[in-house]
Structure formats: C-alpha cells, structure tokens
Amino acid sequence: MPIFKSPAFIQQCFAVHPFSLSVKMVALPEKVGIYCDNCHMRHRLQVTMCQSQVGDESFTEIGAAESLGQCMADHAVDLRVSQVNVKSDSVQFRCRLCRRAYQLVVSLFETHQ
Asked: How many helices (H) and strands (E) would you count in the chain?
C-alpha cells in the first residue's frame, strides 16, 4: 500500500466530499488520524501545535490538546474537519456538541490508500 507524503490528498478529499472526513484517532501531542468514508483513504497528520477556540474568543494553546482528546473520547461523531489550508499547513476541526473549534498546525501530511 503506497503512502503519499503530501497535503494534496486531504485537500482533495475536503474539497470534493467534506462531510465524508471523520476524525478517527487523536494521539496528541503529535498525531491525528482522519478517515475518508467516500474514497477510503486514511490521512495521518503529524501535529506541531494545537489551539482551541470557544465562540468569539481568540485561539489559544492552553488546554487545547487535552480538550481535543476529551472531545474525541466523549463524542467523536460530533468532531468534524471544517477547514484544510495547505498554504499554512493547518487543519481545523469543529465539535458540534461542545461548539469548540480546534486549529492544528501540521508538519507532515501522510495519506494511506
């Protein structure tokens, strides 16, 4: 099975079928796994920074990784990819249940077919 080390594959999945991407694994401080139900690709992100935001507040690193891990443990179904920006090497998640946004700075994108 080939492994592609490029953000282009997750960008393509997000552009074509954004609602098919779901967060499957959070092993912070450094790894997050995303699965595409439509094309059956697994995207692994190596994370260098995690920030969170509630409402109109500014993004902050304080407690963000722990909060993301708790969201994943408590209600993973409600955690969705909301933005992929390959220019700034970042991915954003939004938790529908707790209304929190997460922004991850990614140092390595891998896609497994």
From this structure: 2, 7
Average pLDDT score over residue span 25-38: 92
Cα separation, 78 vs 96, whole angstroms: 5
pLDDT at 83 over 80: yes
Quote the longest CA-to-CA distance of the chain: 43
List, in sequence order, the alpha helices (H) in 3-111.
8-16, 64-75
Helix (H) / strand (E) containing 27: strand 21-27
Q: Could you give the CA distance from residue 58 to residue 92 in angstroms, rounded to a whole number?
A: 14
| pLDDT score of 1 more than 80 | no
Cα gap 61→50, rounded to integer Å:
6
Contact 1, 113 (CB under 8 A): yes
Q: Do the Cβ atoms of 98 and 71 come closer than 8 Å?
A: yes
Coil/strand/helix, residue 56 = coil
Output phi, psi for 49, to 5 deg.
-150, 140
* Claim: this prediction has a pTM higher than 0.85: yes
